[in-house]
Amino acid sequence: MTENTDQPINSAEALRQLSEKIKLESIIIQKLREEVAKIIVGQDYMIDRLLIALLADGHVLLEGVPGLAKTLAIKTLAQAIDLDFSRIQFTPDLLPADVTGTMIYQQKSEKFTVKKGPVFANFVLADEINRAPAKVQSALLEAMQEKQITIGEETFQLPLPFLVLATQNPIEQEGTYPLPEAQVDRFMLKVVLGYPTKEEEKMIIRANVRKGGIGQCNKVIGSTDILRARELVREIYLDEKVEQYIVDLVYATRTPESYGLGFLQPLIGFGCSPRASINLALAGKAYAFLQGRAFVTPDDIRAITNDVMGHRIGLTYEAEAENVSVSDVLKKIVDRVEVP
User: Fold this and answer.
1) N or C end of the chain, less CB within 10 A?
2) With contact defined as beta carbons under 8 Å apart, do 75 and 216 qualify?
3) 314-315 and 268-270: which strand pairing?
4) Is the preceding omega at residue 161 within 30 degrees of 0, hence cis?
């Protein structure tokens, strides 16, 4: 079904039928969540956001201090799905060809042949992505947006589903390179992780010191399950009022004075791009799917606002001087914009 099929589905019967389909498919996604939970203790917020990106065909940037199971969570999710997985450890000496692949001269045939890089997988873990220079980071841009890679004069389609799951360490500045704005904007979600609770930390200790270690994750679903669930997510009903709410939230970052938030204008260097609107709608649908609903509510949008919009707002030096964070700005916007 195409994007513009949202409107005809608003009849009660169509919603009921879609709800039944979602209930059946959500059992499969729940099985995936349970399998991942065998390895990952706590971090439910992170797992939910990874599932949202998986269902909405988006990419995720995970930010947190070392040791919060960012890499482990991504590897575990990939292991639970019968898909190809590759890990790229980003370092300052990495070259774009190390990511995408290159042309190699074969002496026997006297021809150049293509050697594909690690980006040719369903799940690509870009570990510590901010350790590589901009030219390497930008090598992922074509893959993330167009789902294709050009090597020499040939263009290759990437396998579907295709997800880039990147991690970065926010506290270490030496030997790191800030991500270009163009690349950050291509991540559907940026998830900032906190420390586990005391009880979760106890469970983490027990899981890691017991005999046999943390165990193995089994494959519980395949690519067809994911692609089928994605089709259902696209069918979820997005009412025009919720659509307007999304537009208002995004526009409030561009022209805050239009929403009675003029005091934010000196603090915001640039607002969200149209990708924020698109991704709020898609992530909102995926969030509703995880709740077992066939329609999106304003609460769904509010739940994922920080993850979708936070990395798309640029703050001014004045905001930094006043210790105002992006979260502070978004809270003011969410509190002020009228909820339908």
Assistant:
1) N
2) no
3) antiparallel
4) yes
